[in-house]
Specification:
CATH architecture of the largest domain: Up-down Bundle
CATH topology of the largest domain: Rhomboid-like fold
Shape: globular
Number of strands: 4
Largest sheet: 2 strands, antiparallel
Helix content: 55-70%
Structural class: mainly alpha
CATH superfamily of the largest domain: Rhomboid-like
Strand content: under 5%
Number of domains: 2
Distance between the termini: 34 Å
Strand order of the largest sheet: 1-2
Oligomer: single chain
Number of helices: 13
Length: 298
């Protein structure tokens, strides 16, 4: 079962991979809760989760800067993750109709970062939050999802989506109404979350607006990721190469033998191409077609 899950994650598109990441984190938090109860460790979930939630306190944030990233993959309630992942599944695929995979990664992370920054700033600037600033935390992918929604709406405002009980509406209308609701709820019970929504929406608008001007601002997020992935892949290659040195009883292959094989293969391909030129592709045998396909795949 574990192997099947790994294969499904590998086969998933970028939207699916982000959904899986959120679900895995959610299940991991649930497991911590189970073990905490079984071993009488008290509320161990809160103890662990606190190190990955985004605090509104600047003092705590300075000691836990990683929370500006980790919070957007963390959910504590089932309905919270359910609605966020359903929205990400639907609007993520709409987003990929207009933008690339790299844009999706950059927009999701940038939406979360902007949302987190607005959340922290609002709790430290507005007197309304003065009594709650030291014990308020933010979790959830809502800001990231809203960034994806708004970026899609800016790119194609006339694009229509089907909503349950509502019917067909313009994507731009849906985005505007969603942002408007967040603005109206800024003094409600989830004020911090709504400030984060506005930050995410702004990030999505900024990304789309700047891309229309020819500037891809997701680069500042994607470049460090590219560097890390390249570093990881290079290490992996070096480890594989260490165990790849095999020797036959007659010694290793010489450069001369390798070049001879390469030359013979090229001569065979040239012969097949000449045959196509004179008699067409249909004149090739199955073996020749297979050889041509293998050569074109390299």
């Amino acid at each position: 079962m574990f192997k099947d899950i790994i294969q499904k994650i590998k086969a998933a598109d970028i939207v699916g991979k982000f959904i899986y990441a959120n679900i895995i984190v959610y299940v991991f938090v649930l497991l911590i809760g189970v073990f905490s109860v079984l071993f009488n460790l008290g509320n161990g979930v809160n103890g662990v989760v606190r190190y990955f939630e985004l605090p509104s306190s600047l003092h705590l944030l300075l000691h836990r800067p990683w929370t500006l990233i980790t919070y957007m993959f963390l959910h504590e309630r089932f309905m919270h993750i359910l609605w966020n992942m359903l929205a990400l599944y639907f609007f993520g695929r709409v987003f990929l109709n207009f933008y690339s995979v790299r844009h999706f990664v950059g927009t999701y992370l940038m939406g979360g970062i902007f949302g987190g920054i607005i959340f922290v700033l609002s709790y430290n600037l507005f007197p309304y939050f003065a009594s709650a600033v030291n014990n308020s935390f933010l979790v959830g992918a809502s800001a990231s999802v809203l960034a994806v929604v708004v970026a899609s709406a800016v790119r194609s405002p006339e694009y229509r989506i089907q909503l349950f009980l509502v019917g067909s509406v313009k994507l731009s209308t849906f985005a505007l109404v969603t942002v408007a609701i967040s603005v109206l709820m800024l003094s409600g019970n989830n004020a911090g979350g709504n400030f984060a929504h506005i930050g995410g929406a702004f990030a999505g608008w900024l990304m789309a607006y700047m891309l229309n001007k020819g500037k891809d601002i997701t680069d500042f997020i994607n470049r460090p990721i590219d560097w890390f992935v390249t570093l990881f892949n290079n290490r992996k290659k070096r480890k594989k190469q260490k165990g790849k040195f095999t020797y036959s009883s007659t010694g290793r292959n010489t450069d001369y033998e390798y070049n001879a094989r390469k030359k013979a293969s090229e001569a065979e391909i040239n012969k097949i191409l000449e045959k196509i030129k004179s008699g067409g592709y249909s004149s090739l045998t199955e073996a020749e077609k297979k050889k041509l396909f293998e050569a074109s795949s390299k």
